[in-house]
Write a structure and sequence with these properties.
elongated; 0% helix; four-stranded antiparallel sheet; mainly beta
C-alpha cells in the first residue's frame, strides 16, 4: 500500500504488508490512522508515516466497519471463533466488547448503533456500550457466559430481561460469600451487559480463582461460573 502526494505524485510512505488492494477489500480513514481490512486481517496504519500501529488477525468472509468517536466497530457474519459485532479501541486495537449474534447490517445514528440480526433489532448505546433489544423478541430471561473466560483484568456479562422487573447481578466466591453487587436496579425488557474488573465491594482486587455470578430477576435466579487468572 502506497501513499502519494496528490500534487507532486511523490511517495510519502509505503506499507509493505499490503501489496495489493482491491475494491472488495475495505479501507477506513480516521483522524490519525488508515484502517485496512484484507479479508483475513485488519491493519491500523499511521497516516503520517505509514507505520503499523496495530494488527488483528481475524478470518472473516465479510466485514463492515464504522468509526464513531474512539471506537472501531467490526461487524462480521463469520469470525474465526464467533459471529457478531466487536468493538476495538482505535488507538490501541484492544477489544472492548463483543456480541455473539448472527448479524446482518449496522447503522449509526446520533449516539446509538442499530444492528439488524436474526433475532430482531439490537440497539447499542454508543456512549457506554449498553445493549438493548426489541422487547418483542425476548420471551424469557437469560444469563450468558462471561467473555473472556478465563479473564485477567475485565470480563463482560450479557443478560436478557423479559419483563419490567428489579434485576440484581452479584458475584460470589467459592465459599458462597458475596464479593460485589454489579447491578441492582429496575429494568425494562431488553438485552443488557455489565462488566466486572475483579474488585470487591471495598474496591480491592480479589485473588485468582473460581467465582460465580448470579442474576436475580424478581426471585428468578440463574448462576454461572467464571475464572479469574492473574
Amino acid at each position: 500500500m502506497i501513499k502519494c502526494d496528490l500534487v507532486t505524485g511523490n511517495i510519502e510512505w509505503k506499507f509493505d504488508a499490503i501489496r495489493s488492494f482491491s475494491s472488495s477489500e475495505e479501507m477506513l480513514v480516521t483522524s490519525n490512522n488508515v484502517i485496512f481490512n484484507t479479508g483475513n486481517s485488519i491493519y491500523a496504519v499511521s497516516k503520517n508515516d505509514g507505520e503499523l500501529e496495530w494488527q488483528k488477525n481475524i478470518n472473516v468472509s465479510s466485514v463492515e466497519k464504522c468509526a464513531a468517536g474512539n471506537t472501531l466497530y467490526v461487524l462480521s457474519n463469520r469470525f474465526s471463533d464467533y459471529s457478531g459485532l466487536a468493538a476495538y479501541d482505535l488507538a490501541s486495537g484492544i477489544q472492548q466488547w463483543q456480541m455473539d449474534h448472527t448479524l446482518e447490517s449496522i447503522y449509526f445514528h446520533s449516539n446509538r448503533i442499530f444492528v439488524e440480526g436474526l433475532t430482531g433489532l439490537l440497539i447499542i448505546n454508543n456512549a457506554n456500550s449498553t445493549l438493548t433489544e426489541e422487547p418483542s423478541h425476548i420471551t424469557e430471561f437469560a444469563l450468558d457466559q462471561n467473555y473472556p473466560n478465563p479473564f485477567n483484568m475485565n470480563t463482560t456479562i450479557q443478560y436478557r430481561v423479559h419483563k419490567n422487573a428489579n434485576v440484581n447481578i452479584t458475584i460470589y466466591n467459592m465459599l458462597g460469600q458475596k464479593i460485589i453487587t454489579l447491578i441492582s436496579k429496575a429494568h425494562s425488557p431488553g438485552m443488557y451487559q455489565t462488566t466486572w474488573d475483579g474488585l470487591n465491594n471495598k474496591n480491592q482486587m480479589v485473588s485468582s480463582g473460581l467465582y460465580f455470578y448470579q442474576i436475580n430477576i424478581d426471585g428468578e435466579i440463574k448462576t454461572k461460573s467464571m475464572i479469574l487468572v492473574k
